[in-house]
Every structure is written in structure tokens, then in C-alpha cells.
Amino acid sequence: MLRDKSLVPLSRQHQHALALCVRIDRASPISDSDLAAWQAEITQLCQTEIEIHFVAEENVVFPAARRFPQFSALVDDLISDHAALRALFVDAAAQQMSAASLLLVGQRLSTHIRKEERQLFEGLQEVLSQEELAQMGRRLEEALSDAAQTCILPMEATALKPSKPS
Fold this sequence. Notes:
The protein is mainly alpha-helical. The chain has helices spanning 8-27, 32-66, 72-93, 99-127, 130-143.
């Protein structure tokens, strides 16, 4: 389903986070010598975009979704995901992640984003009027105004390496 323009800013941020998830997955297993760089990148993305994104969803999107009983359990699940991801981000900021927990961040974040995009956003586009979506878009624009507007470039240690010919 084509994403309504009111939700595009969140979807764009989802793309930034999914790019990180793909790079984590492709780099795994991650060597101990690269863990610090990966954790620094996660922390930077969290500070410049993800935390602002989570708050915008929690203050704008989730309350709109809660008006519809069919989204109640999904919103509860997404809020739980936010809490679990925040705990992992704290570990990254403290440089306390293992290679396995780094992989878990990528998997958990990817699953969370896909749930929002495929279930919540598509569902909201079906039940909200164009005016309600436009109003949500205005509120999201304001809520996301402090977020980074560009994708963070990976550090040398976290950039995808060219694959070797087989």
C-alpha cells in the first residue's frame, strides 16, 4: 500500500534504521574489535533520530491508533518493543554489548519497524479520514522537527565490505 504523506517522515526514518539493521546482519559475526564502533553508531542514531521518533509515535500515532479497538494489542506490543529497544540502546551507549546482543538489536528493530509499517500504518490509513491523517502529519512534523534529516554515514568499521568473488 502506498504510504500516506502524513506518515512518510516516519517511514523515511524507518528506512534509515533498516539500513543499519541490514548492515549489522551482513557484518555478523561482528568481531570484538569492531563492537565499539557499532555501538557508537547505534548510540548516534538513537540520539539524533530514534528516540525522537519513538516519542513522536508514542505521543501522536499510538493515541490515534488506540481510538480503534483492533489496534489496542498491537499498540501495547509496539510500546513494549520501544521499552526493550531503549534498554538495548542504553547498553550500546555504555559500550556493554556483545556481538550477539548487537545482532539482537538489528533483528528486534527490524521486526518492530516491519510491524509498524505493515500492520499499524497500513491499518491507520484504512480507518482514518484524509483530514485526520493530515492533522496527524502536521503533529508529526512538529514532533520530528529536532530529528536528523539525513541518514548517518557509517564509520569505516561499520560500513559494508565488498563481497569477495566466489
